[in-house]
Amino acid sequence: MKPEKRRVVRRLFVALGGLLLVIQLVPYGWTHANPAVVVEPPWDSAETRALARRACFDCHSNETEWPIYARVAPVSWLVYHDVSKGRAELNFSEWQRPQKEAREAPETLREYEMPPLPYRLMHGHARLTPEERERLAQGLAKTLAGRP
Fold this sequence. Notes:
Helix content: 40-55%
Distance between the termini: 68 Å
Oligomer: single chain
Shape: elongated
Strand content: under 5%
């Protein structure tokens, strides 16, 4: 590689590194503090809760386990956005409030829409066998049956 090309590439990497350092100062979703658990649903069984905890709670409860990479921008922005959106649609820790997606939860599980593939790839514990997925879908359907 020619010296001037090397110089340009080196400057580009230094600029990119500087940009990555500067964006760490953007306080979007900075604290990663979990709100208190207010009310959980009346689970139909301990197994349903355990499966939901394993596959759903990181995004759909106030008991998120924030991985270390959730503290490094720009990945932290994506993780915080996904958790905020998940909690807004269905939150197993704030069952006293309306849950936008509660009725659809069993079907989204059966259709492999939840947990999303990128999440399953990064979190092996969330990979459910087809049998576990069906038991969780049935358990959620029973748990949610009484919900208005």
